[in-house]
Design brief:
The chain has 341 residues and is mainly beta. 6% of the residues lie in helices and 59% in strands. The radius of gyration is 22 Å and the shape is globular.
């Protein structure tokens, strides 16, 4: 059963690397190589999500999850342009007990040699409480709220300090090949804006007395701040790789909580973390790998009430590189130039 509001959710990202012959952009080819005359084609399975959590004082966390589709997709990358198309086929999505989620989730991750940029634009409606059975009405497996809506927009950019030896593209985009272990320091900043709202209080009525947020039915959130981190790829025998990347931000947050006939504003300083993980096989022709990109956005409301946005994307990929002929390279370079400009 298709859960998202569009028959096919598409995702594209721009990787704005300059077009040059192999080895001329300054990377150390002992550590990684890229393939300027190749098209990387991929078949993949993915699942996106944007969840939010209300933390009670000594009580169980209210962890609201969407019921997003597991999507089967195809895609291709040439230089700085990638296009992926995916669809949540019914045979991959048979669980209807969690309720229906309608959503549009656009995630763009752009990897230049010296910079990594992320954009999030997400609209979700329909959430259930995890784990199953918690606060669920009689005869239901999950407590489900069709009226709960989440909107989240985010933008981040980080400087990569070792672009000569470390490649995000090799781990995430599959159009490069990391042959030797390397790491890099990261530094940058992030900004987010989010809204969570419902027709009635977020906390289920039978357990409202256990939560300071018992009267809250809408939250507005803005957060901005600097951060730093580290990324490292471990390579075994030139082909087996494990990549881990973690950044931490100290964000200044402004939160407005809305209850019936009342609103409360609160300034706070909160952590924001993003990690990227990838592992698999990569070589001159084939890549078989999995990756996970995720953000945890913590923020605080009045009376020290705690909230968290969790957003991310899982992927399993089989990719192959094909040499593009001269005529095709010419046309693709024109497309690449349009997107670069």
């Amino acid at each position: 059963m298709q859960k998202n509001c569009l028959p096919a959710i598409f995702f594209f990202f721009l990787n704005t690397s300059a077009i040059h012959a192999q080895g001329t952009r300054g990377n150390d080819t002992i550590y990684y190589v890229y393939f300027p005359n190749s098209i990387t084609a991929r078949l993949y399975v993915s699942q996106k999500y944007t969840a939010y959590t209300l933390k009670g004082n000594g009580s169980k966390k209210l962890h609201y999850l969407p019921n997003t589709t597991l999507n089967l997709g195809i895609g291709a990358t040439y230089h700085n342009f990638s296009l992926n198309l995916a669809y949540g086929f019914g045979f991959l999505n048979t669980d209807v007990s969690k309720g229906k989620t309608n959503y549009l989730d656009l995630q763009a991750h752009a990897y230049k040699p010296k910079w990594v940029t992320d954009f999030y634009g997400q609209l979700y409606k329909g959430y259930h409480l995890d784990p199953d059975g918690f606060a669920a009405p009689p005869g239901k497996d999950y407590y489900y709220r069709h009226d709960v809506k989440v909107t989240l927009f985010g933008l981040s950019q980080y400087r990569i300090f070792n672009p000569r030896r470390f490649s995000y593209n090799a781990a995430i985009i599959q159009n490069e090949w990391q042959k030797k272990s390397a790491g890099t320091l990261l530094a940058g900043a992030e900004v987010y804006y989010g809204v969570v709202k419902a027709d009635s209080n977020f906390v289920p009525e039978p357990i409202q007395d256990n939560y300071t947020q018992k009267d809250i039915k809408s939250i507005n959130y803005f957060s901005i701040g600097p951060g730093a981190g580290y990324a490292y790829t471990l390579v075994i025998a030139q082909h087996i790789f494990i990549t881990g990347s973690l950044t931490g931000n100290v964000n200044f947050s402004y939160t407005t909580e809305h209850s019936t006939g009342n609103s409360k504003n609160h300034f706070s300083v909160n952590p924001v973390t993003r990690f990227r993980a990838a592992a698999g096989y990569n070589g001159r022709t084939w890549d078989v790998s999995a990756n996970w990109i995720a953000d945890d956005l913590h923020f605080t409301g009045s009376n020290q009430s705690k909230y968290v946005f969790n957003t991310g994307n899982y992927r399993f990929i089989i990719a192959r590189r094909f040499n593009a002929g001269n005529r095709l390279q010419h046309h693709l370079r024109l497309v690449n130039k349009v997107f670069k400009e």
